[in-house]
């Protein structure tokens, strides 16, 4: 039964996964994945929001109604709201997005519209912090990487919907041309709320809070299809226990834990790197200010800009969603490094074509830049897809939520800065501004090649040892020994079982 024996370190998750013909043949996996849809769609809500503002900038009735916002006024619509996000949870995020969508649709002046952006930005940020951790800790071990890989591509999925909604309302002759897309922003949040009603809590969180039996029930129901004797559940519990005990022994629930060990310091430096690699690449320029890019290459027709906005999001989604097919086959490093290098190459070509446009009237050069925009946006979303599972894998349980907060809040801070810089620098500098991003993306690829380890084929707890090395193994074994000694001293059964008699038998066998 479900226990905690000394041989647990000698086994790995892949050794106890039951053979299956295909996950779609199993009702319990359908049920679990439907619940996890709430977390996956949190990115879609953010993607809708980003593409929506792109579309609104191409709608004459919106720009005219708000007196043609530009420069810092345009930047503040994207950046100010995002700083409020990052420290609460999913359910509140859904309601904030719904409320913000209604306020936005009812806006009568710029300040009211800015207020709606603050509310929606806060809601999106709250959802994303909670969602990333829940996906990593609740997904079935056989699907964890694939499910996490689908998290980032749901961003352009939301963008596709927003892009074509604004294209559809372009022909409206009333303010509903921009009010209707704002109302429809609440749809993804409403779907999330429904899925959340069926979503259980994280087993790791429950065990950390002393609610072990509830965690066992969830693992048995959602990971083992009701089989209380499942060796998979047994090993998952053993690994969760070991990691939580190790973290408790080191008093790891403090932010200071980042500076106590070599492995944790490495995690801290990597989490300073990731937000820069994601947000300071030129992606925000395309995601939120595509009309500025298109204007710079001579594509000024509003309808054509809306069509290209929809096309860019479709390209990003197809590239990003494809990553789940190969991220576990090739490993994390290649799917992080190669896309970033290809992004750098596309920005170099963009820069060359932009420079040539200064001395030519050839409209083909402008469409060549548009092709590079598509190429860049596709590969940066492959990077996004691979980054999500990697960030979770580099975390210990105690640091996982803190790392997710660093990931989300770090992105938001970098995004805040670039949101003010992009609408000012792009019209002034044009292709010269892209040189900065071309250099940075090349540096990011080099840093990942030199410093980032591979985590392919490992469970979350096994990944901890990749970053902590022998020091991490010693900590886990020390926690294990102290845990058993404490229980023995108090006469506590070490099994933590569902059925006491069978648990005792398991512990006796595992100690032979």
UniProtKB/TrEMBL annotation:
It comes from the Eukaryota. Its main location: membrane. One of its GO terms (molecular function) is carbohydrate:proton symporter activity. Pfam families: Sugar_tr (PF00083). The keyword Repeat does not apply. Residues 1-456 form the Major facilitator superfamily (MFS) profile domain. InterPro entries: MFS_dom, MFS_sugar_transport-like, MFS_Sugar_Transporters, MFS_trans_sf, Sugar_transporter_CS. It is a multi-pass membrane protein. The chain crosses the membrane at residues 92-112, 150-172, 178-199, 268-294, 306-327, 334-353, 365-387, 399-418, 430-452. It is found in: Membrane. The keyword Acetylation does not apply. This is General substrate transporter.
């Amino acid at each position: 039964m479900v226990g905690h024996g000394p041989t647990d370190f000698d086994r790995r998750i892949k050794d106890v996964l039951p053979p299956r013909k295909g996950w779609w043949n199993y009702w319990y996996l359908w049920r679990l994945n439907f619940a996890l849809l709430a977390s996956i769609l949190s990115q879609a809500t953010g993607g809708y929001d980003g593409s929506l503002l792109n579309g609104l900038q191409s709608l004459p009735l919106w720009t005219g109604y708000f007196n043609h916002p530009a420069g810092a006024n345009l930047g503040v619509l994207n950046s100010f709201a995002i700083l409020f996000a990052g420290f609460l949870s999913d359910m509140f995020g859904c309601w904030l997005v719904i409320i913000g969508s209604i306020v936005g649709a009812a806006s009568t002046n710029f300040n009211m519209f800015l207020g709606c952006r603050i509310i929606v930005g806060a809601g999106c940020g709250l959802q994303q912090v909670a969602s990333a951790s829940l996906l990593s800790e609740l997904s079935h071990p056989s699907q964890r990487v694939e499910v996490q890989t689908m998290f980032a591509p749901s961003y352009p999925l939301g963008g596709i919907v927003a892009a074509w909604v604004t294209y559809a309302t372009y022909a409206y002759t009333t303010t509903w041309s921009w009010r209707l897309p704002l109302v429809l922003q609440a749809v993804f949040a409403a779907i999330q709320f429904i899925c959340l009603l069926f979503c259980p809590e994280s087993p790791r969180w429950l065990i950390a809070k002393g609610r072990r039996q509830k965690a066992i029930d969830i693992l048995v129901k959602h990971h083992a299809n009701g089989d209380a004797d499942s060796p998979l559940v047994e090993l998952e519990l053993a690994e969760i226990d070991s990691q939580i005990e190790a973290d408790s022994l080191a008093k790891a629930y403090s932010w200071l834990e980042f500076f106590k060990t070599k492995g944790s310091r490495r995690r801290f430096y990597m989490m300073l790197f990731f937000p820069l690699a994601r947000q300071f690449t030129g992606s925000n320029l395309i995601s939120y200010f595509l009309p500025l890019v298109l204007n710079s290459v001579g594509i000024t027709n509003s309808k054509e800009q809306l069509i290209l906005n929809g096309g860019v999001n479709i390209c990003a989604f197809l590239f990003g969603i494809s990553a789940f097919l190969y991220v576990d086959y090739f490993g994390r490093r290649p799917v992080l490094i190669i896309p970033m290098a290809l992004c750098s190459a596309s920005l170099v070509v963009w820069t060359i074509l932009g420079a040539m446009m200064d001395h030519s009237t050839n409209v083909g050069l402008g469409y060549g830049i548009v092709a590079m925009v598509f190429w860049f946006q596709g590969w940066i979303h492959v990077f996004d897809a691979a980054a999500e599972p990697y960030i979770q894998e580099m975390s210990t349980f105690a640091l996982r939520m803190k790392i997710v907060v660093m990931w989300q809040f770090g992105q938001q801070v970098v995004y805040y800065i670039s949101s003010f810089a992009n609408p000012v620098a792009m019209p002034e500098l044009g292709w010269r501004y892209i040189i900065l991003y071309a250099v940075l993306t090349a540096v990011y690829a080099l840093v990942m090649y030199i410093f980032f380890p591979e985590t392919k084929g490992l469970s979350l707890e096994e990944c901890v040892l990749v970053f902590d090395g022998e020091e991490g193994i010693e900590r886990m074994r020390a926690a294990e020994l102290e845990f058993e000694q404490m229980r023995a001293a108090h006469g506590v059964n070490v099994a933590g079982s569902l059925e006491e008699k069978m648990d005792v038998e398991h512990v006796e066998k595992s100690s032979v």
